[in-house]
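[09:14] KT: can someone run the structure on this one? pasting the chain below
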Amino acid sequence: MADVRAAPRYSIVPGDPVEHKGDWLGLADRNLPFAVQGREARYSKYYEDSPLGPAKFFLARDAQSDTFVGMAAIFPTQLRVFGELVPAAIAGDFAVDDGHRGLGPAVPLQRAAVNALGEHGLSCAYGYPNEHSEPITRRVGYTDLGRLTRYVKVLRSRVVVEQYVKSRGRARVAAGVSRVTVDPLLWAVSRERLQWRRRGLRVERPAAFDDRFSALWETTRQQGTITSERNPELLNWKYETTREGGIYRILALVGGDDQVVGYAVYRVRNGIRHIIDIVFQPSAEVLDVLLAELIRDARREGAVAISVIHLGPASLLTQRLRGFGFGRRTETSSLHVYVPGESELEQALVAAGNWCFLNAEADV
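[09:31] RB: done, structure tokens below
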């Protein structure tokens, strides 16, 4: 495929997973810190081994230096749009070298990525760009569906002290005092102290996803929202359940018939338990038990807080998070969605009220 001319100085080149691996790694090394996984591991996972096919990516070549100075990618994924399985893409790995930003190849890179949607039969691209990328995604036609909301449950006062007390010495003293005086109060007033009746439910930590989750996923598909597809093959790859030392953990509620009725996937960073996904039968009783067990378990493991990212209308989940003492704050990041046309399906994708968005929907 011939280069697409982007500007007198730059050309946009479709990336080849074999030929351009070294170029991708170099750009990632200079521009994209990957805290969760190394660059080599990330490339293998998303560009070589994805069950949905490799990421489609584009590189910007600088004519003056004859080197690649930028890249942008879309990662194939699957959405459930009101129950219907729809192929889509997550936008990511967008990087431009210092000295080539501003009026350089950033916009042409993003245009090349979204123009590839139709070629690969993908209905939309979506993601939550940072403050530097957001003006560019708006310029190429992404729709801003609104700011994400973070729900946070503080378990130990240390996390608050560290946020507001800048002096390390003072923070250490304040944390020691608050551990004795404030932490017992946080526990005493927390709703999970109540003895929730499990009604035949038991807590498990599955090592992987299996068919016991299928009935639960089928229930969620009928709830009239837009979410990502969930099945054992896809989630076991996504959360690397077969990899020794993986960062993701599953906590599940299992009924007497050995079927999962609710679960959460999380990872821990800096002592904070980040809930990536939470799925449950549409029952306040089930969700209350799941949240109570998640909080108790986090306390036992010494977590300082629990965090959940969400976008969507008020729901049972948002109601019960508030009921369990999760504070709410608006994030700086927004969910942005690009659709190439104006079909009924595509218009549904750009309505914020249709989404039930968690980190799981764009966790790449």
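[09:33] KT: thanks! Residues 159-189 have pLDDT under 50 and may be disordered.
[09:34] RB: yep, looked fine to me
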